[in-house]
Amino acid sequence: MIIEILYSELVKLLKSKASLEQVIENLDMLGTPVDGFEGDLLRVEVFPNRVDMLSPEGLARALNGFMESQSGYPIWRTEPTNIEVDVKSTSRPNVSFSVVKGATLDEESLKALMQMQEKLHATVGRNRRKFSIGVYDLDKIKPPFVYKELKLKDILFRPLEEESDMTGKEVLESTEKGQKYAHLVTDTAPVIMDSQSRILSMVPILNAEFCKITKDTKNFLIDSTGTAEGTENIVSIIASTLADRGGVIGVIFPGPTFLPKRVSAPLEYINKIVGLNLNESEYMILLSKMRLGYDGDVLIPPYRLDIFNKMDIAEEIAIAYGYNKFEGELSPSYSPGEPLVSSLLDNELRKLVVGMGFLELKTFMLTSPEILKLAGGHKIAAVNSKSLEYSALRPSILPGIFDVLKFNKDADYPQKVFEIGPVFSPEEGHNISGMIVHKTANFSEIKGVVDRLIGTISQSVEWKNGEHEFFMKGRTAVSDVGVYGEVNLSISEKLGVPMTAFELDLNKLKLQERIL
Amino acid sequence: MNTNEAKLMTLLKTVKTAKASQLSVKLDLSKDIIARLAYSLSKKGLVELEKEETFGLKLTNEGKEVKKTGLPERNLLLELPKKPEELNTIALNWALKRRWAEMKKGKVVAILKDPPQTREEALLDKLKDLLPEAPDTKLLTKRKWIVKKKEVDYTLNITTSGKTASVEEKITQVTQNHLMGGKWKKLEFQTFSPNTKVPEIYAGRFHPLTDTIEKVRRVFLEMGFTESKGPHVTNAFWNFDALFVPQDHPAREMQDTFYLDGEDKLPEVSKKVKTVHEKFWGGWDENEAKRRLLRTHTTARSAKLLTEVTPPAKVFQIGRNFRNETVDYKHGAEFYQVEGIVVDRDANFNNLVGYLKEFFKKLGIPKIRIRPGYFPYTEMSAEVDVWFSPKNSWMELGGAGIFRPELVEPLLGEDVPVLAWGLGLERVAMMNYKINDFRKLYKSDLKTLRNRRSLL
Q1: What ipTM was estimated for this complex?
Q2: Which of A129, A311, A415, A428 should we substitute to test contact with B (largest number of B Cβ atoms within 10 Å)?
Q3: Is the predicted pLDDT of residue A322 greater than 90, yes or no?
Q4: CB–CB contact A386 B209 (8 Å)
């Protein structure tokens, strides 16, 4: 997921001076590669496991640690609050709240906060189905709050950016967000209300206009609701972002306690799996570069959604140590390299056919049913493709080769081409097909090619006259290993030049093994 | 002087001057050959050439038809009387215009049975004598029976040195006959220049992707890896579930993956995978896992391999994969992936870096950079950048990591580090063959394939 932030905003949040090159290098090595930089706009890729870095504050928090200008477990001021939430039974049963007081935003940081919220919805939120988030101006609403399910017709409020009050039904029908997320609610939807029965949010669709946050908002109420557990982590991500803007976190129940999660990751294990030889002090220093605490256990801040066990700590240590600082060493266990017999057969045949002057092609295995009509009555496996062009698996290589030749009419003749590859009829097979096109292409010539192929691998094959949609009546040879002959004139007339072809089933061809 | 040159000069010594078109008839050689001979003799200073452009008249297909079967309006008279709509409009209009026929009671009837020869018919008869400039030709061009055609001819005039030049014939093609009984010793042979243009010879060749595949195979085999391959059609279980990819992961959606009809039976090991999914992702639907699909990565096979191998093992695969993507210069619906895994109780991240460095060095890419990455089934995860000197920049080429214990334990039966890395083969081929568009690799343009350079 790419986020766009202002480089100047990021620099303001850094605790030490660094050149642009250093910042980019450190972002790359921290696991948030820079995708582009233009003017003041920095495009950074944030991997789905580090959604806490979807804001400039989150990036700076991690970067300060990584660059060792502010490392260690992040400390925020927290205080208890007397705000109460009455949680009733709803269709999104998981819910968490938190408040942040005294944070300072401006135009840019408000924009960044909105971007973060939107990206969280898209990623971990699985488009709001799993989690959704709301942020409100605490000074415009009155606790205690209630979280409950209401019938759509009983919901009445003025949604964000709307001119007047709407019922729940109207929200779903006539607002953009309503239409987009209507599938997430039934004839009821959860709502958050304040003590004056004002609806703050119709979850997970839209918040109310009256309590929306602006750049002048100082005190914030944050909520996350969801169908899965983990809403307190989502709330933590937003709360810690606002705390980094000078806010004091107020703990609410239900909601994150902001106490660290503990993971046991013995140093011995870390050294073994990472391939280092750290002592305990070095271990602790590397942990603190990743903003993790240590007291025998590793202490994980609540905004980190991606750390479950010791393997995850190993990755933190490898990143802190610096991926580019590892020397690299091959593991000592011996093993011989063995090729696949099928690859050896492919290569022998490939060399033979190339020796006869054929040019190798690689075409797609997915093709259009239209092209496959040429191959006749095979059973074709269809897929759910975005385009008809790639909607069927080829049962034969020949139609694909013919399609290629249609686009090569201006290339010098004779044209001799072949391809080796999988076919699906609909069981997977492995074929070799070739085609010859020139003024005097004929049965004798293609028979010569096939006889040479079969003869070289000294297999005896019994060919008989037969019939095949792709080939010309009376000039078609068939056997249990395949087919060859002159191409059906209704096909070759499309090219206007005589054509011959062969297709053999590689699973039926047996090569003798070497004795020594 | 070769045989044809000698023939032509002998003739020209008698007649002194001749048109190429006449020579073509007299010597029974095509106009093209005469033109080439004339050009080569003029370069030797034996003849002088005068180019002549003339306009000739040529019958069109319709003109030929008329000459054979007669004037349409004349033929029309034989059909009369008839209703006008049953007749050819053009022929009818001409017949009416010439007053050969008229309308009577809604029917066309003939006025003349056998009208005298028209000017057009006379012209068609003596077309050869007709000059292109003659005003009469318009009568025929208007009806699209003839067209004017540019004709180029040359007059060959023998020069003074041509008159005295020896026309001794030199042999071009050595024949078996020449080699018998030492006949060749008394003969003179035409010399050849290496600067003449000759017909192209095309070699049978491997496709650039095959060349790249073979190079990568060699590197893996030399590093002690065993080759493996798996089916292209597999199921969601091996492609996703066995790899710890949650069932609500966006990559599993229809718009990203090709699904086929029908479902597969799940293997025994799916029970253990189910437990892991339920623990970490809060649920698991076996019907979702049974869905048949075109594999999106060769890692689907690697997952299955883990149920088959005993550590230590090193395995590699090079195979085609499928993603339901819109095709552009960077992506295709089909692409090759190269993948290596090392299953080893003592393996660690530093070993992974070691394998990556060795692998890319052997592939001819000495400078690589390894940085943190993310894949749902690895921890640690790494991206591999290679230094691309033509662009003077890092280029993302592959992914690597250690399979998560949540993935390995159920499949292998124990938690053993499994180092894994993969890269897109087309990217390597595109770098090597200086191709900037993915689609060009699969376009199969014969000229490009025939003329591409060979690489070590």
Answers
A1: 0.90
A2: A311
A3: yes
A4: no
